[in-house]
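[stage:ingest] chain + small molecule (zinc ion)
[stage:ingest] validated
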Amino acid sequence: MNDCLFCKIVTKEFPAEIIYETGRTLAFRDIKPQAPTHVLVIPKEHHADAAALAEADEGLADDVLKSAHAVAVQEGVAGDGYRIVFNTGPGAGQTVFHVHAHVLGGRALTWPPG
Ligand code: 5GP
Ligand code: ZN
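[stage:predict] done
[stage:export] tokens:
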């Protein structure tokens, strides 16, 4: 996926503040944070959205979820509570079409999100 911004972060062609990495996932800080902790967790392999990730094989979605939780622990927000969000499709606000989990924490998070 030559034109994918997050694929370029995976290959280090584009910079990002990477805070966590596994064999199949990468986590980096959102450039426009919506909370004191706002980290994006992605599979290194390109899948457009959560629907595609759900259909990916060999537990890739599981790896992304596990990495999201590991990031929350590492960031110190797991105790108070944190939110994992997959905006899926333009109608839900997805703007980057390489699936990513937003991990948000470090402040009170209201529900519903609006
Ligand atoms: P979406 O709207 O697709 O759910 O989320 C995309 C997220 O990617 C946004 O929160 C946006 O701030 C973040 N983002 C967009 N471009 C960049 C970038 O170049 N670097 C980083 N670290 N985050 C980005
Ligand atoms: Zn990609």
